[in-house]
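Dissemination and training. As part of the outreach component of the grant, students in the summer workshop were shown how a complex can be specified as a set of sequence lines and then modelled as a single object. The example used during the hands-on session is reproduced here so that future cohorts can follow it. Participants entered these lines:
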Amino acid sequence: MSATVEIPSNADIAELVSEIWSTLFYEQEGLIEVEPPADLPELVESRVSITGPWQASIRLGLSDAAAELAAHAMLDEPLGSLTPAEVADAVGELINIIGGNIKSSLPEPSAMSLPTVSRQPAQAQPVGDVRQVALHWGEHLVLITITQTAKAS
Amino acid sequence: MRMILRRILLGVGFEVTEAVDGLDALARLNEDEPPAIALIDWNMPNMNGLDLIKEIRRRPDCSRMALMMVTTEGEQSQIVRALAAGAHEYVIKPFTPDAIRDKLDLLGLMPAGVSE
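and obtained this result:
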């Protein structure tokens, strides 16, 4: 991804997240980009905010099953053995890595918040200055949403 | 990420103590003998990893402690800042377990008998 204050393209986002996924989950299936669903299902969502010349929120949405699978793969633990807090930590770390890598391509000084994790109910597609990339991880949905809140003029 | 690093370190024979942020890490250093190595994230609440490295480097009792920054901060300027502050190694997330083991080996900290 080139240095820019523009919102990253869907292709850039998909490539970045796929690279991260293949490093962390090298024993699992890779990601395949798909059309975002018309209505978003209930998701476990982690989020970071970027501030600086380019300001945005970056969110990672995973189904419960995908969040558990990711956490178990990251921690190399058998399925069903982790607490919800441990799963949430892992999902938070994922957005920390995704956001940090996006931040690395931005002009300095840029800063990134600590990750937060929450459950998002089913909802309609977001509107506005938003990029959304949907990826399939096997049968699971991985959803990246970047909402630009401000950029340098 | 602490949980992942903990597993990697335990897997090569380290005893592991975790701290939730920089201030917690300093408090633990006041209570215990300095460890052989600290793996430090840049982005932490209360005291970030860069400030923690600077604080540790001010302490004579920690002069032999290796410091490895493990972070998403991949900008060259950030790497230089961390190394200038006293970090010995720098790992950018995401990483593989082998990447951490390689760094430990470079630092001469892989316990005897542990293969990479």
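Chain A has a mean pLDDT of 87. Students were then asked to discuss how this feature might be tested experimentally.
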